[in-house]
Design goal:
It is a single chain. This protein is mostly helical. It is built from 5 helices and no strands.
């Protein structure tokens, strides 16, 4: 519905979070990645990072969703970036430390 309505996919809420980041945080561990895939395929920004260091891929990694993490990487999500708060943390380092 969000996509079909023409709503701007990269709108940021008051916490600096996009719909893609929220969907990646809440996806189930099996192949229930449909909402995130739809948002990405419709042009959602893969590499938006909030001031707290959250990104779509960091949320997928933190939730343990390897299928979604792999999908995001193949679509071009950056796995190494400097977290604005935890300078030595990135989705790549989060994944290898799990």
């Amino acid at each position: 519905m969000l996509i079909d309505s023409g709503y701007p996919l990269n709108t940021i809420n008051s916490d600096g979070v996009t719909a893609l980041i929220i969907s990646c945080r809440n996806e189930i561990l099996d192949d229930e990645t449909n909402m995130s895939k739809m948002l990405v395929n419709a042009g959602a920004n893969l590499n938006w990072v909030t001031r707290e260091g959250m990104s779509a891929i960091s949320q997928a990694v933190n939730s343990g969703n390897n299928l979604l993490s792999d999908f995001l990487m193949h679509k071009g999500a950056k796995i190494i970036y400097q977290d604005p708060i935890y300078r030595d943390s990135s989705p790549f380092f989060q994944a290898i430390n799990k």
